[in-house]
Amino acid sequence: MHTVIPTAASYPLALIFGGLGLYMLLRRHGPNLWIGVRLPWTFADRDIWDKSWRLAAMFLLGMGVGILVSLKLFFIAVAHLIILGVLYPVFLYRRKYGTLRYWKDQGWIAYRPVARCPRCGHFQKLASHADLGRGACEACGAKLPEPRTGLWGSRPPGAQKGRNFIT
Questions:
Q1: Residue-by-residue DSSP string for 124-157
Q2: Which has the closest alpha carbon to 52: 61, 63, 42?
Q3: Domain segments of the chain: what residues?
Q4: CA atoms of 98 and 70, how far apart (whole Å)
Q5: CA–CA distance, 97 with 5 (Å, rounded to integer)
Q6: Burial of residue 142 (number of CB atoms within 10 Å: 0-12, 13-18, 19+)
Q7: Is the dihedral of CA 118, 100, 61, 63 positive or negative?
């Protein structure tokens, strides 16, 4: 039987990937240059960084277990980590701010979010992700939208949790 990764090499790889995934689950670092999903959209918003960090940690832990179980399962987890590790933060940023635009201040990590006005479509630079619900559009004066916290958005006050509720 011919295997791509010999059995002796699968144990250290499982230890590396599983250990890194476990480390990432137990320890949370802020945006940095060394580890994590380092995209402009994750640097611009700490909440998106934390969510993509958690997703990457789960996939790395799955890769560590997957290489012990099956080589196919390992490669499936690698593909999911690469594809979803990039698409998930982009989806979250677009969902929260209404655009994929960002702006960069001085420095290597000083990315800032940009929100889109729901009334006139003007792109508004924000100082931080906390300014999303507090600011007003420079062009028309309309209030910027409230941030969406969940995957499908936040529920309006008084809304009941139901099967068909999607905002």
A1: EE-SSGGGTTT-B-TTT-PBPPPPP-SSS-PPPT
A2: 42
A3: 7-95
A4: 40
A5: 43
A6: middle
A7: positive
**C-beta neighbour count of 37 within 10 angstroms:** 21
Take residue 32 and report the two structure tokens written for it: 């940095």
| pLDDT by residue, tens only, the chain of 167 residues | 555 566 778 889 999 999 999 999 998 888 888 888 889 999 899 999 999 999 999 999 989 988 888 888 888 888 988 998 899 999 999 999 888 888 877 666 678 888 888 888 888 888 887 888 888 888 888 888 877 655 544 444 444 444 433 43
Residue pair 123/104 in contact by the 8 Å Cβ criterion: no
* Other residues' Cβ atoms within 10 Å of the Cβ of residue 28: 12
| Beta-carbon count within 10 A of 149 CB | 10
**24, 57 contact by CB (below 8 A):** yes
Closest to 55 (Cα-Cα) out of 83, 17, 81: 81
To which residue do tokens 């100082």 refer?
127
